[in-house]
Design a protein that fits this description.
- The protein is of the alpha/beta class.
- It has a single domain, classed as 3-Layer(aba) Sandwich (Rossmann fold), CATH 3.40.50.
- The protein contains 5 helices and 7 strands.
- It is globular, with a radius of gyration of 13 Å.
Length: 120
């Protein structure tokens, strides 16, 4: 399944790598370096999947879950973090995140999680 995917991460290297990996699979990939930029991208495009880092320079990636619910979107969200905690994992799943992934992510693991999320 080819999908519209938004990658939210404040680290340019992650945005670049994930864009490359996902575009090679045929997906349409958009990136955002922060929360406000992600909201602007969501105003422009309907996404099938959002990959959101928790810690962003201008907000919390986990807040995108609330935004998806408020906008009544069918967008699936994968939360990513290099600093996992029970609290953020519970918050993520309570707000219907599909997955909670711990960085660093390998290409195969990322693609597998994306494919499974898109099939749900």
């Amino acid at each position: 399944m080819k999908a519209n995917i938004l990658v939210m991460d404040d680290e340019e290297s992650i945005r670049f790598s994930f864009h490359r990996f996902l575009a090679a699979e045929g997906h349409n990939v958009t990136t955002a370096k922060g929360y406000r930029e992600a909201l602007a991208r969501m105003d422009e495009t309907e996404f099938d999947l959002i990959l959101a880092d928790i810690f962003l320079g201008d907000g919390w990636g986990i807040d995108i879950l609330q935004e998806v619910m408020q906008r009544n979107l069918k967008t699936r969200v994968i939360i990513m973090t290099a600093y996992p905690s029970t609290e953020t994992a519970q918050d993520s799943f309570r707000m219907h995140a599909v997955y909670y992934l711990v960085k660093p992510l390998k290409q195969a693991g990322l693609l597998s999680s994306v494919n499974m999320a898109l099939q749900q």
